[in-house]
Design a protein that fits this description.
Layout: E1 2-5, H1 7-23, H2 29-50, E2 57-62, H3 66-80, E3 84-89, H4 97-105, E4 109-111, E5 127-131, H5 145-155, E6 159-162, E7 184-188, E8 191-192, H6 193-197, H7 199-202, E9 204-208, E10 222-224, H8 227-233, E11 248-252, H9 259-272, E12 276-280, H10 284-290, E13 295-297, E14 308-311, H11 319-329, E15 335-337, H12 340-347, E16 359-361, H13 365-372, H14 380-393, E17 398-402, E18 407-410, E19 415-418, H15 430-443, H16 460-483, H17 493-498, H18 500-508
Parallel strand pairs: 1-8, 2-3, 2-5, 3-4, 5-6, 6-7, 7-9, 10-19, 11-12, 11-14, 12-13, 14-15, 15-16, 16-17
Antiparallel strand pairs: 1-10, 17-18, 18-19
Helix pairs in contact: 2-3, 3-4, 8-18, 9-10, 9-15, 12-13, 15-16, 16-18
The chain binds ligand NAX.
GO molecular function: ADP-dependent NAD(P)H-hydrate dehydratase activity; ATP binding; metal ion binding; NAD(P)HX epimerase activity
Region (Disordered): 219-239
Catalytic activity: (6S)-NADHX + ADP = AMP + phosphate + NADH + H(+); (6R)-NADHX = (6S)-NADHX; (6R)-NADPHX = (6S)-NADPHX; (6S)-NADPHX + ADP = AMP + phosphate + NADPH + H(+)
Length: 510
């Protein structure tokens, strides 16, 4: 399990290290340790992209704080390995003086101007080290950094970000319009929240040991499971199991308008575990044609016992759909509310009050808009936590999975993030697959058997099922994109669905 911490916790953990260095009369000892890690990873990137380190060109973008100091010391170390190093001082009047002296005495060049001042190799360096801002950064890149970053990115130079890509907020993970897109981010001691909230912008994240003790988890810690943890926890039938003990999930999905949603959702539930799947809705014939093992029922009232429910994909938003949601919640089983069910809840919020068992809401950004009446998109984790806490304060045992390239799950106490490493899952119908998988996991019982779900107490199991399904869903999307039509060819939700068994198998072996 990866854990990423807020700035305040990191500053607190760093303080004793810095105080010890100052007391020893070497105030930059920690910074030099950090910088040598940056230099190490920059050299590795140079080697993999250009075949060597000696003689390669490096540009340092140097801001006014300690992040710029790290970049300057890293530049001095790379100069020692034979690189041509040029530091661009973005605020020449405010620069880490000792680190600048170290670069100069190692033979690094220093410039202070705008984009036009850079010429020759420095206009297209072999690597750029982003030391504009780190933990104290706020808002987008400002000039002259923004123009300089844009020119270097256009030239195709790879970026190594020191601590965080500049223009990405350390706590919220907000990626501002003007920002650095890093190939590699080198951070120190432990992950910052942005590394898990804005992972697509951070590139590969390398954590350098600077002697810092990992902060304890708190309410603002972001968690991300390793796929192998999900693999170990994925249900496997034991010698005593039968179809009932592995969990029965009932699915209310599909309509005359959206028959495919029923097929995708029910088929995903079948693929996720070897328990039993019931189906209620107008799509029974299509569902049976795709998966004859599904047991179909004419109405919610006539559906046999189920350990969990999924309601909503393509299920309609009229009064009959609302009545079905009420009838399902009255059964007091863990329930996934997805797609049309979220629209129903948004227009009839009172319905949720009857929830006696855990509910999992799975909105995308637009559905979350409807549920909340508008939310602060610049701070996804806080907006999500506020909404979940509000529901829980009203006695509704809710967990919410907010979809996106980086999917967030929050149960009011813990935030998880899942980034599948590609955006291939952004395709129509893929949400129906996800809700079917979560429903099957919820039916299987305490999710993540024995897995550390972050010590979250109540709600943790629902959250773990949601996180585990999101991990496999992302793996399936990536695998489908590799296999269907070859790398780079788009996929549909049907391709993703077909890749689910192989994705489960892959993470079990991970
Ligand atoms: N504290 C420590 O123990 C260590 C800190 N280290 C480095 O120190 C960094 C933090 O340094 P600082 O606290 O000096 O802060 P930064 O270097 O992150 O920021 C410096 C200043 O930049 C300005 N700024 C904020 N947003 C900006 C923007 N969008 N555009 C331009 N300027 C902006 C602010 O005035 C801010 O105080 C860490 O990210 C890390 O790189 C490392 O040396 C490892 C050890």
């Amino acid at each position: 399990m990866l854990r990423a911490h807020p700035v305040e916790a990191i500053r607190t953990a760093e303080r004793p290290l810095i105080e010890a260095a100052e007391a020893a009369g070497d105030p930059d000892a920690v910074m030099r340790r950090a910088a040598s890690g940056v230099a190490h990873h920059a050299a590795a990137l140079l080697r993999s992209r250009t075949g060597g380190v000696y003689g390669r060109s490096v540009v340092l973008l140097v801001g006014s704080g300690d992040n710029g100091g790290d970049a300057l010391y890293a530049g001095a170390a790379l100069r020692g390995r034979g690189c041509r190093v040029e530091a661009v001082l973005l605020h020449p009047d405010r620069v880490h003086a000792r680190a600048l002296r170290a670069l100069r005495s190692a033979g690094g060049r220093v410039t202070t101007g705008g984009v036009d001042e850079v010429s020759g190799a420095a206009a297209t360096p072999d690597v750029v080290i982003d030391g504009v801002v780190g933990l104290a950064g706020s808002g987008p890149l400002r000039e002259p950094a923004a123009a300089r970053v844009a020119a270097l990115a256009r030239a195709g130079s790879p970026f190594v970000a020191v601590d965080l890509p500049s223009g990405v907020d350390a706590d919220t993970g907000t990626v501002h319009d003007a920002h650095v897109r890093a190939d590699v981010t080198v951070t120190f001691g432990t992950l910052r929240r942005a590394h898990l909230l804005a992972s697509p912008t951070c590139g590969r994240v390398e954590v350098v040991d600077i002697g810092l003790a990992e902060p304890a988890s708190g309410p603002l810690t972001v968690h991300r499971p390793d796929p192998s943890e999900v693999g170990r926890a994925w249900p496997v039938p034991g010698p005593e199991d039968d179809k009932y003990t592995q969990g029965v999930v009932a699915i209310r999905a599909g309509s005359g308008r959206f028959p495919g949603a029923a097929v995708l959702c029910a088929s995903a539930a079948v693929a996720a575990t070897s328990g039993m799947v019931r189906y209620v809705g107008s799509g029974a014939a299509d569902v049976l044609a795709a998966r004859p093992e599904v047991v179909c029922h004419p109405s919610v009232a006539e559906t046999g016992t189920a350990q969990s429910w999924v309601v909503g994909p393509g299920a309609g938003t009229g009064s009959a759909a609302v009545a079905d949601i009420e009838a399902i919640l009255a059964r007091a089983r863990p329930t996934v509310l997805d797609a049309d069910a979220l629209t129903c809840i948004a227009s009839h919020p009172v319905v949720l009050r009857s929830a006696r068992a855990p509910v999992l809401l799975t909105p995308h950004a637009g559905e979350f808009d409807r549920l909340t009446g508008g939310w602060d998109r610049s701070d996804r984790p806080s907006a999500l936590r506020r909404y979940v806490s509000d529901l829980r304060n009203r006695g509704i045992p809710a967990t919410v999975l907010l979809k996106g390239r980086v999917t967030l799950v929050d149960d009011g106490q813990t935030t998880w993030s899942v980034d599948p490493g590609s955006s291939w899952a952004a395709t129509a119908g893929s949400g129906d697959v996800l809700s079917g998988m979560v429903g099957a996991l919820l039916a299987n019982g305490p999710g993540g058997s024995g897995v550390d779900s972050g010590g979250t107490g109540s709600g943790g199991e629902v959250a773990w099922s949601a996180v585990a399904a999101a991990v496999v869903h992302g793996e399936a999307a990536r695998a489908a994109a590799r296999r269907t039509g070859g790398p780079g060819a788009p996929i549909g939700a049907g391709d993703l669905l077909r890749a689910v068994p192989a994705a489960i198998s892959a993470i079990r072996g991970a």
